[in-house]
Amino acid sequence: MRFSGLRILKEGLTGNTGWGPHWRDPAPKDEYDIVIIGGGGHGLSTAYYLARNHGITNVAVLEKGYLGGGNVGRNTTIVRANYFLPGNSEFYSHSLKLWEGLEADLNYNVMHSQRGLINLFHSDGQRDAFVRRGNAMINQGDDAILLDRDGVRKHLPYLDFDNVRFPVYGGLLHPRGGTARHDAVAWGYARGADTRGVDLIQNCEVTGIDIEDGVVKGVQTTRGAIRAKKVGMIVAGRSGQVAAMAGMRLPIESHVLQAFVTEGLKPCIDHVVSFGMGHFYISQSDKGGLVFGGDIDFYASYAARGNLPMKEHVMEAAMTLMPMIGKARVLRSWGGIMDMSVDGSPIIDRTHVDGLYVNCGWNYGGFKAVPASGWCMAHLMATDQPHEVATGFRLDRFRTGRGILDEEGTGSQHNLH
To which CATH superfamily is domain 5-16+24-78+182-250+343-416 assigned? Predict the structure, then answer.
């Protein structure tokens, strides 16, 4: 079923009785060429690109709950390509290009809005750092505009520019950055994969990974054993637990990242805004709610909920940056389980087990990476060779120390990324 303006008009006039399910609900088969553990954005995009780019359709995506019920539905929806280090910059640049053609590719409205992203800076040192980052982005082929104080004021007049501790010196504008609708991204990829023959199996928790003589043979699930020639572990914050089934210990920790949304308001924030001194970021959704978040909760946890001290910290940062937000009522909050790698950069690689692959370590960048992550993971699983924009995401960099991608320059520690 293809979407079009004419089809929407017709269904609206006939009681919307002609729409069918967006994907099938199949029973798992005994064997697949590829099994993907995890029905989030990265797992679904991997399945889609395996079918679309490589013609591999005997694929199952196994999700213990419902599709899109994890981190892809628990984030602040930001899309950007303002990375600095070689290795990361090429990857996220590729991802942004995929975002820009995603709706036409999927024939699905993911509500991608390139409203522009502004990273604020509050000191001379931060200005110098953003000048370097902006030049790196331009050299990469992306866009960046350095704004002085008055330039920021034209875009964001509601900020507290004269805050004593954190005065606004200027900002780096990334015009092609913006947001997308997280649920729609998952649904679009699910629909596209299903249309190409991929089995999307919900309520199917993986309880074990079958390995014989160093070769993966399949998985054990709550719906029975499933044989597979290749298995991909793409489960975000649950990566450490799933990898343990294969006898692996990954160089990641899982932390909670909280996010918040206010009641619906009239349009007042046109951009995505990032506070350089408080790790606070905010945008306004299409429904009018102000969507914002801050730091991770600095303790390891698998709970998809946060704690009060971090809520207070985020609210303090919000009030420091834009006092007007104090008049808005917070509607709800939620937490996503972040797979934090020790250098703040992802992992897309083969493991020591033949036929077993891992995709994890996305830190704060998981949602914006969904298209390129699936593209590169599908390429890896289909060809056993890393895609050219993901060659730096090797698993062994943490063992050898070579190729560490410390994007934030804060050192190789989980709790600093």
Answer: FAD/NAD(P)-binding domain (3.50.50.60)
